[in-house]
Write a structure and sequence with these properties.
It contains two helices and nine strands, in the order βββαβββαβββ. The protein is α+β, with helices and mostly antiparallel strands and 149 residues long.
């Protein structure tokens, strides 16, 4: 029913609510409609938590921000020990091509958040970059950093 993604496997519980499949979001602590983008987002949440060690309590889903006076929402923002934004994640459905348009969207969102690590994924293809706001340098990184406990 759902595509296999390029993340460590996990078997989410899928339930039918109001005749639609739903997944449990452990960050928002509620059942959410299992859209293709949500399928990717839940895999990212599990990956960040179970594989990289980020506490669920340090994640925010669909964070509000303003971009050119327009209200937007970032898919996932991960906060560090000091509750400063550390990773900005933009999730797309597996059918969405990972192109410059997606990367530019994440970059626009990061103008508001000023997060040092940006991760964009459609569940199949991932791109990650680190940004040094003092020097203006951006470089691609091969993996996301582990949680520093």
């Amino acid at each position: 029913m759902y595509p296999v993604l390029n993340f460590p496997p996990y078997e989410p519980e899928v339930v039918q609510l109001r005749n639609k499949p739903h997944l449990f979001d452990p960050v928002r602590k509620k059942w959410v409609v299992a859209t293709p983008e949500e399928w990717v987002r839940q895999h990212v949440i599990r990956y960040l938590s179970e594989n990289l060690g980020y506490p669920l309590s340090h994640m925010a889903i669909e964070c509000s921000l303003k971009v050119n006076r327009l209200a937007k929402r970032a898919d996932i923002v991960v906060y560090d020990h000091h509750l400063k934004p550390a990773i900005l994640v933009e999730c797309k459905a597996p059918s969405v091509k990972m192109d410059m348009k997606v990367l530019e969207q994440a970059a626009r969102y990061n103008l508001a958040f000023r997060v040092p690590v940006v991760f964009v994924t459609n569940g199949i293809t991932h791109y990650a970059a680190s940004i040094d706001f003092e020097t203006g340098n951006t470089k691609t990184i091969s993996s996301l950093p582990l949680w520093k406990s």
